[in-house]
Hints:
The protein is of the alpha/beta class. Helix content is 38%, strand content 15%. The protein starts with a helix and ends in a 21-residue tail after the last helix.
Amino acid sequence: MEAQIKHYENKLAFEMDPSDLFDALNNGEKVVVIDARKAFGFEAEHIPTAINIPHREMNLETTQHLDRDILYVTYCDGIGCNASTKGALNMTKLGFKVKELIGGIEWWKFDGYATEGTKGVESGLKIECAC
Length: 131
């Protein structure tokens, strides 16, 4: 049973679902969302507040401006894409605290949250700043 407990603790330590991310963003937690896809995917549609750093471009130079004391959550298209996993691995190797978004932008939309971009879905729940 200890191995199973450790397995679930590890999953929660390294993954986040869309609901938890939405709550973290709305509660003002120190979280930065990283779209790990290529720029054209980000421009078409992305999670609000997200920044775009394609996993293939993550290195010391492209991440030098980022705060190493906050949590980064990487995402991609969804379960058929592993850019978020590659991005999480790259960011971890660079010394950042990282979680991977379960289901990517597809599950974000499935859960009813808004997106931005040229093909964004504005009808979903929006992130609101309370400050």
